[in-house]
Amino acid sequence: MSAKMIIPVAEKRAAKSRRKPLLVAVAVGAGLLLSGGALVAFSLWVENRGEGGEAGWLTSRARSAVTQPIAEAVATQVRRYVRAKMRSAWLLGGYSEQELLDRLASPTITRNERRLVAYRLASAATPRAIEALLQMLKNAPPEDRAFFAQLVGSAGGPAVKASLWPLLDDPDEKVILAAIRGLSAIGGPEVSARLAGMLADPQRSAAQRAEAALGLGDIGTAAAHQTLVQALATTRQTEISTEIVNSLGKFPFARVAGTFEHLLAAPETSGELRVVAVEALVNSTREAVPFLLGVAGRDADPEVRASSAWAISAHESGAPIGPALSELASREPEPDVRRRLYEALVRQTDAPAERLVPRVLAEKDVAARVAGFNAVGSAVGRQPASAAAASFDDQMVPELQRIAANENSLNIRMRAVFALRRAQTPSAQAALAAIAASTSESAPQVATAARNGLPARP
Question: Could you count the other beta carbons within 10 Å of the beta carbon of residue 80?
Fold first, then answer.
């Protein structure tokens, strides 16, 4: 729609009224992204604080990776919320496809608004919408070309491959990486072959080869799997090997079990890559859990054992492994590994609460102790009439209340609150009410977490 076009006053007013919801979309989207970023940053800060409150950077990938579920969960929810709202009539203000196409080409809208309109057109994925996005890709300013390259690939399907092939040799590496992601979303034998060629090309940068490896993992075909296995055997660059292993972790475990067993057993595999390997199995199928249990129980490297326990905790509870995790915790010498094992027990429906209680009460490390309280609290929440429920109320609730209300690190205080929330016993509820009242001014985050664990008032 040309800015010079003369339209009736009534139509101008209607257009103005329709613009307001889309401007709201910009504000909502920006606010959500900022909020999501703040939450992610907060989770990183909490995880990286020492128990006494001192800043202490985590020393391994296993430690930093514990924030991954938080960060990914926040980012995923933000993306889902924004996308859902963008599809809604309220947020889009009833724009027709033609009006969205006109707005996409308008020189007067903001960059954020143009991106929201582009997302809406991509979700529609009509031939006209894809053609408009391709045209926008062709004429986009440098800072937007990567955005449109990935969006076109994700929405356009096989028909847009011809437009993306040239971008694999673009002068701007960000555009190359975005084109790889877009093509990976399309998939197919031709895309797999192109990415395999990039992965094997020593003239390509490490970032491009690593992105190609990730793309092959997303495609997930037998050919992609074979390419990744062969590349792992010949690649010596850590950055590329890391992403090859991460991509292999996306395959069903039955298909990659031999590769991971060899990788963990090979003496030439670095400690860092061994940690990457067990963490990559977070994205594999549940059949990886018995393998991870074995690593957590037998590996000589405590970093690898801790990462294995963390990976187990990321899988949904399936086969009965609560007793096995409890047994591992009872003989594990490292408190940080025990902490990860307790965290894995939280998700198990068969956690042996009575056996856990004496083990947890013997913990000297406060982080492991609070993690153990969470494991017991989770089991008690499922078995409120068990003997462990009485032990939790008598021996753990008073301590958890003190931990949450006193000057421990924010990380530990929040975890103490969640242990009480998981148990849901009357004593735990009373402790949450007391924490909410006593920390409302000194630690509002703790007070809010405690308050949210209480039953809603009628």
Answer: 10
How many CB atoms within 10 Å of residue 442?
10
Largest CA distance in the chain: 81
The DSSP H or E segment spanning 435 is helix 426-438
pLDDT on residue 317: 66
Q: How many CB atoms lie within 10 A of CB 14?
A: 13
* pLDDT reading at 306 higher than 90: yes
**Distance separating alpha carbons of residues 430 and 436, to the nearest angstrom:** 10
Chain segment 122-149, per-residue pLDDT in tens: 877 888 989 999 998 888 888 889 999 9
Contact 357, 388 (CB under 8 A): yes
pLDDT digits (tens, 9 = 90+) for 418-454: 999 999 999 999 999 999 999 999 999 999 999 999 9
Is the predicted pLDDT of residue 89 greater than 80, yes or no? no
Closest CA to 231 of 208, 205, 209: 209
The pLDDT tens digits for 328-368 are: 999 999 999 999 999 999 999 999 999 999 999 999 999 99
The answer to whether 439 touches 404, Cβ cutoff 8 Å, is yes
Query: Which tokens is 283 given?
Result: 């994205």
Which residue in 118, 170, 121, 178 sits closest to 146, CA to CA? 178
Q: How far apart are CA 108 and CA 93, in angstroms?
A: 18
Query: Among candidates 420, 346, 362, which has minimal Cα distance to 389?
Result: 420
Quote the CA–CA distance of 84 and 78 in Å, as a whole number.
10
Separation CA 389–CA 381 (nearest Å): 8
Sort 37 into a burial class: Cβ within 10 Å, 0-12 / 13-18 / 19+: middle
**Nearest to 193, CA basis, from 219, 169, 174, 171:** 219
Tokens 């800072």 sit at which residue?
A: 143
Helical spans, DSSP H, in 350-406: 353-361, 366-382, 387-391, 397-405
Nearest to 121 by CA among 137, 142, 141, 145: 137
The answer to whether residues 263 and 269 touch, using CB atoms and an 8 Å cutoff, is yes
217 touches 186 (CB < 8 A): no
Count of alpha carbons within 13 Å of 110, Cβ hemisphere only?
Answer: 11
| Residue 94, pLDDT score | 65
In the chain, the amino acid numbered 262 is H
* Angular region, 315: left φ>0, alpha ψ -120 to 50, beta rest: beta
What single DSSP character describes residue 126?
-
B/e letters for 291-303, b = 16+ CB within 10 Å, e = fewer, are: bbbebbbebeebb
Give CA–CA dist 343/325, Å, rounded: 10
